[in-house]
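Risk register update: the risk of archive-format incompatibility is retired. Evidence:
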Amino acid sequence: MITLNEVGADTPAWELNLNARPYGDPDDPAPKIEQLTWQNVEDWYFVNTTGDTHPMHTHLFTFTVVGRYNLDVNGLVTAYGGPNGVPQLDAAQLTPFLTSGLIAPPPEEMGLKDTVKTNPGQVTVVRAKFIPPTTAFAGGQLTTQKYVHHCHIVEHEDNDMMERVLVQP
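Archived output:
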């Protein structure tokens, strides 16, 4: 589960983040890193608590869009929100806040993607298999690779709506 947060909208203190953690916080002794394994399949739940649609982009792996759920954002924020927004939770914790069944993706979202629209008040579910590129092999051995995923709106990406991804053998 990846939460998209906007703190202090329409103020000079405006900040964006993923999982209630700024990307470039120099005071964070343990920056958030999604740890994945090559060849594994994972469902990612992009939980948009903001008022904007964010085109979320992954580097070097693709996914299929499974669909979307409508979300009671106010209920989720009341239950789990903090000064930096809603942190990363277990996806099962979303269940009481879902206000619809799974909504199928539109035809234009079929096939492999590296960017998906995450709409306000929705949970967007994508399914990825982490297939190593040829550059992930050194001396015939599969190696750990570092990537990022982020909002593809430049002002949002530059304002910490980004997270590290580590894919390992």
